[in-house]
Design brief:
66% helix
Amino acid sequence: SIDELYLTARSCLRLYERDVYSSLRLTRNTDLKRIIGFCTKPQESARAPSRNTYSHRVPLHKPTDWEKKMLIWSGRFKKEDEIPETISFEMLDAAKNKIRVKISYVMIALTVAGCILMVIEGKKAAKRHESLTSMNLERKARLREEAAMKDKE
């Protein structure tokens, strides 16, 4: 029982030490005063930023005439004069996605209209007693007559 208590206390102490060391490792690279809660001015960096560091600026893109039209059609801008010289790729992607959605809505509407039109035309043909079977039989009979006329000649 005492041995189990000793082992439990030892493992708890190890976990505590691991947490303390990880927090100390985090504070080595940061300003300790800021972590404690004091408000101080950030230290000016004496060294110049290296070329290998990543810049957080968003890359910009000069839109073509077609892309300007897409920005207007998507509703992002009202006139071509309002479009800036350079835009972000995210803005262009958002405009393209909006146009894709609009085009898909138009295609859905055209598909539904085409289906309704075909139903109406099919009902009119049924009233005239026209069907694919009767049209097929008439065509085959006409082809047989033409073949018989050629045989007689």
